[in-house]
Design goal:
Elements: E1 7-11, H1 16-27, E2 32-36, H2 41-50, E3 59-61, E4 67-69, H3 73-80
Parallel strand pairs: 1-2
Antiparallel strand pairs: 1-3, 3-4
């Protein structure tokens, strides 16, 4: 899968919701790119701009350009059609 067609998950390693979302994607064999906003200043700025100044994670960007912020597993399943 081309990098541009992957889901991008912006999060932090210490965030329970980020870990849960990654675990959900992994369990369903969904390819994604992980970006830790604690170590990537450009990504942190993107998350803050997307979330009105907040570092709300996970912020998940889909290939169609849509974004889910702090989604539940049910919201992820709905978005991914699983």
């Amino acid at each position: 899968m081309e990098e541009s067609q992957k889901i991008i998950v912006y999060g932090t390693n210490w965030c329970g919701d980020s870990r849960r979302a990654r675990r959900f994607l992994d369990e369903h064999n969904i390819a994604y790119r992980w970006i830790d906003i604690d170590t990537d200043a450009v990504a942190r700025k993107f998350v803050e701009e997307t979330n009105h100044g907040f570092r709300s994670v996970p912020t998940i960007v889909f290939p169609d350009g849509s974004i889910l912020v702090e989604p539940s597993n049910a919201e992820l399943a709905r978005k991914l059609g699983i």
